[in-house]
């Protein structure tokens, strides 16, 4: 049965008013889940020791691969993005025996290339009001509640961000003000902070980079901002802590089907590092592969569970395509760029509510830089590694220039990246029907689809609602698998690793306990690793050289003599990389430079300078030979060069 999931228990249809359509009521009595924001327990030696012990208890890759082969699992999750890791965590907490495989790294696709906002979606609220659409409003209210969950579950990775809407015409002031207040209202008890007006004078002081000529006022509302790929890795490791068997760089090559019933009983997988293949047995398989969902659905449709054959004629164009003619996913390329911090206030974001082509564009302070985006370019096929075009980058810069009074320069772009937006449609909709070929009008809700082979597919949605998507997917798994005696879903009140003993004073604890520790380094560790940060700090104390930037690893005095002063601009240390290799399943240089540290997203040119030292350190830890190191270095540099540099 196929169903669109847009309902929300806090938004209920009451009826029509004078023929004008539905109205809604919002639960405002529930205690805000983020009341506990920042109050996560005691910080001290016992808490630090507990975090270190939990990290050390995680199985290494060899043990994980052996468990995949030896265990009969209740559920095998395919896909290590936001949804897949969320499903693995939820299912593990309920008592299911869980395996997860990801063909690349956690968050290697869309889940590392989002706008980094935990938000309800102001544009969806606008559509809901003007179209009198209950499904649109349900999506907003659902996301607003899940936004509060992110602030509770991972407060070290998620922060409240005020966002300014500059207003250049007086008649728009009441329009935007009413919209922001409605946004607050539909959040109910989960509202973060009340929206408010800013006078032109105050706005000019807060955001001096804005062009003042036509500026009238500003509206400020609040959403959350987070570190997406670190959150995904945190979900994966949290699932491991709860008993899940999780492996990156293991791809599904074939779905195994019972010869009599045709029901899927597992998958044939390949270890991407060795090329070895084996079977993972599971009662239920979940397809949580995001933009690549159609690839698994193609296997599902094949009697032997095999993927569609690649075109016989090998061409450069064919090599760039991951999924041909997708039926469920409506692919769209979304591009973001990274700019220096002076393009935006350090503590507030900017929203362009009316771009030249009707899109919404954000300019947000993030990790000490400014990210700007996004574009929305419809695609016919799903690419393997989407990359931004120069036209995409210029499009964002031109929109930004409408607001900024100094020249917006191409050379200021530090990085640029592209992801495939997770838009979906009901695959039963015939080709060519309304809405099936364009992203215009598609709501980023999610679908759950259970095929006759008992493959459960979860597709669509957005980062903010990953937890509810996972909950509903596991509900479906339990129903299809007829599992009994399980615990109820507890993810709404589950803190992720790094959050259990973290609080708003954790940076102060690190700087006092591990003095001298620079402000920027302590802030980076506290806000990205939470209560696991002391493990890295202990490495500093054991070996002072591990506190050096990762780009200075391995070359001794010669490297220091010839170093670029910019090497010290970023807080990514040798110890941090060692931690990620040992406790977060980093297997390649891109895993660290892109997804654990975010180095290449923040400054692709500087990240290029750190490639060889990063490869050498990983090689030393994992035992790579010279040939493997050379190949890894070349692959990493080629990929980072697609980041707009």
Automatic annotation (TrEMBL):
It is an enzyme of class 1 (oxidoreductase). One of its GO terms (cellular component) is mitochondrial outer membrane. Keywords: FAD, Flavoprotein, Mitochondrion, Oxidoreductase, Signal, Transit peptide. It comes from Huiozyma naganishii (strain ATCC MYA-139 / BCRC 22969 / CBS 8797 / KCTC 17520 / NBRC 10181 / NCYC 3082 / Yp74L-3). Its EC number is 1.1.5.3. Residues 1-25 form the signal peptide. It comes from the Eukaryota. Belongs to the FAD-dependent glycerol-3-phosphate dehydrogenase family. Pathway: Polyol metabolism; glycerol degradation via glycerol kinase pathway; glycerone phosphate from sn-glycerol 3-phosphate (anaerobic route): step 1/1. It catalyses: a quinone + sn-glycerol 3-phosphate = dihydroxyacetone phosphate + a quinol. The keyword Cell cycle does not apply. Residues 74-431 form the FAD dependent oxidoreductase domain. The keyword DNA-binding does not apply. GO terms for biological process: glycerol metabolic process; glycerol-3-phosphate metabolic process. Gene3D superfamilies: Alpha-glycerophosphate oxidase, cap domain, D-Amino Acid Oxidase, subunit A, domain 2, FAD/NAD(P)-binding domain. This is Glycerol-3-phosphate dehydrogenase.
């Amino acid at each position: 049965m196929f169903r669109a999931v847009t309902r929300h228990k806090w938004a209920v249809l009451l009826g029509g008013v004078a023929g004008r359509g539905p109205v809604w009521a919002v639960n405002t009595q529930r205690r805000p889940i983020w009341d506990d924001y920042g109050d996560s327990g005691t910080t001290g030696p016992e808490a630090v020791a507990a975090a270190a012990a939990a990290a050390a208890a995680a199985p290494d890759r060899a043990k994980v691969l052996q468990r995949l082969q030896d265990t009969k699992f209740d559920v095998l999750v395919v896909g290590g993005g936001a949804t897949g890791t969320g499903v693995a965590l939820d299912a593990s907490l309920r008592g299911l025996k869980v395996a997860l495989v990801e063909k690349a790294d956690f968050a290697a696709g869309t889940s590392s290339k989002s706008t980094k906002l935990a938000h309800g979606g102001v544009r969806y609220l606008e559509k809901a009001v003007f179209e009198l659409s209950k499904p649109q409003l349900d999506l907003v209210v659902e996301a607003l509640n899940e936004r509060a969950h992110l602030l509770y579950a991972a407060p070290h990775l998620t922060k409240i961000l005020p966002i300014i809407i500059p207003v250049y015409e007086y008649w728009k002031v009441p329009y935007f003000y009413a919209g922001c207040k409605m946004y607050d209202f539909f959040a109910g008890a989960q509202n973060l902070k009340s929206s408010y007006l800013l006078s032109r004078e105050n706005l000019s002081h807060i955001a001096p980079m804005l062009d003042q000529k036509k500026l009238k006022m500003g509206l400020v509302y609040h959403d959350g901002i987070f570190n997406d790929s670190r959150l995904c890795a945190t979900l994966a490791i949290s699932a491991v802590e709860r008993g899940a068997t999780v492996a990156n760089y293991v791809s599904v090559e074939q779905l195994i089907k019972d010869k009599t019933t045709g029901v899927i009983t597992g998958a044939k997988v390949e270890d991407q590092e060795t090329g070895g293949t084996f079977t993972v047995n599971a009662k239920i398989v979940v397809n949580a592969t995001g933009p690549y969902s159609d690839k698994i659905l193609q296997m599902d449709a094949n009697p032997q569970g095999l993927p569609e054959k690649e075109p016989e004629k090998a061409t450069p164009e064919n090599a760039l395509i991951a999924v041909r003619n997708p039926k469920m996913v409506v692919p769209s390329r979304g591009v973001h760029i990274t700019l220096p911090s002076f393009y935006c206030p350090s503590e507030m974001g900017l929203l362009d509510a009316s771009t030249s082509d009707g899109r919404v564009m954000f300019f947000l302070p993030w990790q000490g830089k400014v990210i700007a985006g996004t574009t929305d370019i419809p695609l016919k096929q799903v690419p393997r590694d989407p990359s931004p075009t120069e036209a995409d980058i210029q499009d964002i810069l031109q929109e930004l220039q409408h607001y900024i009074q100094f020249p917006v320069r191409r050379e200021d772009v530090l990085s640029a990246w592209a992801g495939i937006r997770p838009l979906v449609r009901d695959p039963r909709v015939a080709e060519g029907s309304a809405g099936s070929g364009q992203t215009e009008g598609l709501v980023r809700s999610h679908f759950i689809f259970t095929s006759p082979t008992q493959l459960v597919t979860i597709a669509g949605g957005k980062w903010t609602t990953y937890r509810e998507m996972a909950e509903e997917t596991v509900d479906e798994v339990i129903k299809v698998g007829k599992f009994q005696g399980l615990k109820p879903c507890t993810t709404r009140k589950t803190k992720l690793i790094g959050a259990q003993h973290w609080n708003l004073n954790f940076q102060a604890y690190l700087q006092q306990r591990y003095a001298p520790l620079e402000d920027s380094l302590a802030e980076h560790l506290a806000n990205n690793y939470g209560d696991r940060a002391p493990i890295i700090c202990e490495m500093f104390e054991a070996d002072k050289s591990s506190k050096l930037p990762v780009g200075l690893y391995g070359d001794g005095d010669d490297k220091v003599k010839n170093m670029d002063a910019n090497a010290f601009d970023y807080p990514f240390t040798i110890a941090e990389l060692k931690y990620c290799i040992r406790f977060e399943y980093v297997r390649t240089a891109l895993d660290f430079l892109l997804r654990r540290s975010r180095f290449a997203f923040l400054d692709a040119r500087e990240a290029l300078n750190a490639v060889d030292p990063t490869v050498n350190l990983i090689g030393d830890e994992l035992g790579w030979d010279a040939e493997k190191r050379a190949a890894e270095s070349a692959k990493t540099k080629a990929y980072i060069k697609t980041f707009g540099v």
